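WARN  no MSA supplied for this record, continuing single-sequence
INFO  ligand: zinc ion
INFO  echoing inputs
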Amino acid sequence: MQRRQLLISSVCAGLAACTRTPSAADGMVMTVRGPVAPETLGLVLAHEHLFSNFGGEPAEPAEYDEAALLRAVTPYLQKVKSLGGGCIVDATAAWFGRRPDLLRRLSQSTEIHVLTNTGYYGAANDRYVPSAAHSEDADAISARWLREFEDGIGETGIRPGFLKIGVDEGALSEIDRKLIVAAARTHRATGLTIAVHTGGNPDAAAQQLEILASEGVAASAWIWVHANSALEIGDLERAAERGAWISLDGLDVGSIGRHLAILNRLRAGGFLSQVLLSHDGNSFRATGRAPRAYDALFTHFLPKLRQESFTEAEIAQLTRGNPQRAYTIGKRLQR
Ligand SMILES: [Zn+2]
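INFO  complex generated
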């Protein structure tokens, strides 16, 4: 109860109401083991999935063969740790596999920091959006997410470290629009960063930034997730110019050249301080699909950057400073 009193107790009724109480988590990163100072995270993988049941039936909370899951995921985390990783941002959302309690167990046993999320994933043709969200308004949806931030997810007491949203291909649908409005309002109440699965959809990216602006939220509160799928690097530059985070998160051994080409352009444009790197890996997929590793950053991409004359300061910025800042809780409002 004491914790609750420190936090904001109700969703914003209007823009004016939202700028009041600073959250007790302000300036911190919320991990599954509680708030920590950003710089204690070390090297951060900014978008991975320790596990999911993506492709399977929607369920919240997800059910897993827990022993098999822990057996599969633990070695991946140990490897990341041995390579110098300190934190993984887990992007598995509600309804397709989120289990904060399992994330916490893994975080405790491997001593890697892990972030989980609140929000709804409106990609995959809205398969993982709960039916209630179609009839509720944006404030009612936001109120659910805000409750998770204040009270923890389910009975776990574990609080989300960011908002994870998804939108479908093409122009934003009605539900996708509503999710972005709800995310903007939740940001205004909590300071949680808004990571949106947007992929190679620059029109949807621009539309989202318009919605955020109309809700008074700055682009610097928003992460273009899967930006590496964009066909035109110019679209990424335009979003970065507005202040957005650009998440190049599909790293694998085969993608190094493409990632490097995008990164070089963003570097030339002066946007290196807004880039996030990750693999969108997945170390346990309940649907039986093959896991996707998340170590190519260490084994291939960083060595390549060094060859390409990226300085150690730039590498530290990309892998530590940027993600630490991106996921620090704090309201980023448009004046
Ligand atoms: Zn993902």
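Residues 1-21 have pLDDT under 50 and may be disordered.
INFO  checksum written, moving to next record
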